[in-house]
Amino acid sequence: MSPLPRQRLTKRSFVNFVVIFFSLLFLSACGQRPPQVYQQQVLALGTLVDISIYGVDEEQAAKAVTAVSNKMEAIHHNWHAWQPSKLTYINQQLAAGSTVTLNPEQQQLIQTGITLAKKSNDLFNPAAGKLIALWGFHSDERPDSAPPAASDIEALVQADARMSKLTLDGNQLGSTNPAVMIDVGGYAKGYAVDQGIAALRRMGISNAIINAGGDLRAIGDKGGRPWRIGIRHPRQPGVIASLETHGDESIFTSGDYERYFEYQGQRFHHIIDPRTGRPAQGTRSVTIIHKDASTADAAATAIFIAGPTLWRETARAMGIKEVMLIDATGTIHMTEAMSQRVHLNIDTKTTKTIIVP
Ligand code: ADP
Ligand code: MG
Predict the structure, then answer these.
(1) Which CATH number fits the domain that encloses residue 100?
(2) Which residue puts its alpha carbon closest to atom 10 of ligand 1?
(3) Are residues 137 and 50 in the same domain?
(4) Which atom in ligand 1 lies closest to the alpha carbon of residue 298?
(5) Which bound ligand lies closest to the C-alpha atom of 212?
(6) 191 lines ligand 1 (CB under 6 A)
């Protein structure tokens, strides 16, 4: 075969290819709309929960949103810390020295709390309900009144309520310390988000975000495009950083701005350091990326309490690699893994950033 006809043939195929390619591009631009993200807000867990679903039809997505919101609402009611709930019943029984029979869901949540508390060296301490109540956070509205008396705080710190004082024998829960009062506020949102994602998966949905007031778990993507999310600035309106999610992961933030009261110019927030019995000092917010939401939620609380001096140790003990901590002076501390994920939305001249391996 001579080289000439072969060259002509190649040229013609190239021209054909270009014509077909651009025709297809034109047709798809005119005729085909890409699938839309179905997005709906529901009131659940006492907050606005934003649910985004991609890749299924609207009817299926709407059904899924209802199922998720019902599931999350049930968890909220069952585990309410101060309105009569299954949890308040459990706490009454424990305070009276009785054992309680748990259902499988209760067993799972309590066991998760025991495990996470242990990993955090009890900085994450869902047994510290009495302290949280003493500070006035077991109410819908915390009036700006004086903080509790030092003697009351000290008495509860001495009472040493810890998750390790619980005895979980099969489905039988007891406590060796009557001061234990369970408060799942530090990880219930994460647990509810995990349950919501599990419900979506059972319905055949593999691309979604459940975002509960800024704390979220994402799965899949939007037809090859990643979900993009923002991390709230602890002192200004708007976001301090944004990132794209990779597959299945949760992003949770604990902040001193979420629930607090002010008294004589001082801020008293709702994340209580079990060692002092007082709102944890030294941190404004902590953001965690981790696969499951329950762990991310608990770790954000624990690492917040650990503060700028102990955060790396606590993160390591809890198996968390991606951490961003904003301390009381506004300095941003990040693990290297986190720094590779976030796009900071700050003036680097005025905000100090410390990246550690
Ligand atoms: P947010 O996401 O609202 O900033 P967190 O996830 O940090 O909140 O949880 C704060 C809640 O956790 C408090 O309202 C209280 O119910 C509970 N809590 C407070 N201190 C602790 C603690 N040391 N360990 C576990 N739970 C805590
Ligand atoms: Mg938390």
Answers:
(1) 1.10.3980.10
(2) 186
(3) no
(4) 6
(5) 1
(6) no
Give the strand order in the sheet containing 166-169: 100-101, 172-175, 166-169
Ligand 1 center to 339 CA (angstroms): 25
Q: What phi and psi values does residue 229 have, to the nearest 5 degrees?
A: -135, 160
Structure tokens at 51: 């649910």
Contact between 43 and 212 (Cβ < 8 Å): no
Atom index in ligand 1 nearest the CA of residue 301 equals: 7
The atom number, within ligand 1, closest to the CA of 255 reads 4
330 Cβ contact list (under 8 Å, min separation 6): 235, 284, 351, 352
Which residue stretches of the chain have pLDDT < 50? 1-9, 19, 23-24, 26-27, 30-31
Q: What is the pLDDT of residue 236?
A: 93
Proximal ligand: closest to the CA of 305 = 1
- Rounded Cα–Cα distance for residues 278 and 153 (Å): 8
Question: Which domain covers residue 274, as residue numbers?
Answer: 41-63+210-356
Residue 173 lies in a domain: yes
Per-residue pLDDT, 8: 42
SS3 content of the chain, % helix, strand, coil (to 5): 40, 25, 35
pLDDT for the residue numbered 13: 56
Number of structural domains found in the chain: 2
Please check whether residues 102 and 51 belong to one and the same domain: no
For ligand 1, atom 12: residue with the closest CA: 186
Assess whether the C-beta atom of 254 lies below 6 angstroms from ligand 1. Answer: yes
pLDDT value, residue 34: 55
User: Nearest ligand, CA of residue 124?
Assistant: 1
Phi, psi of 157 (to 5 degrees): -65, -45
Tokens found for residue 4: 């000439």
Which residues fall within 8 angstroms of residue 38, CB to CB, at 6 or more apart? 52, 53, 54, 56, 58, 61, 62, 65
Q: Of the ligands numbered here, which is closest to the C-alpha atom of 297?
A: 2
Which residue out of 183, 211, 286 has the highest number of ligand 1 atoms within 8 Å of its CB and is therefore the one to mutate? 183
Q: How far apart are CA 323 and CA 321, in angstroms?
A: 6
Cβ of 270 less than 6 Å from ligand 1? yes
Residue 97 lies in a domain: yes
| Atom number of ligand 1 nearest to Cα 189 | 6
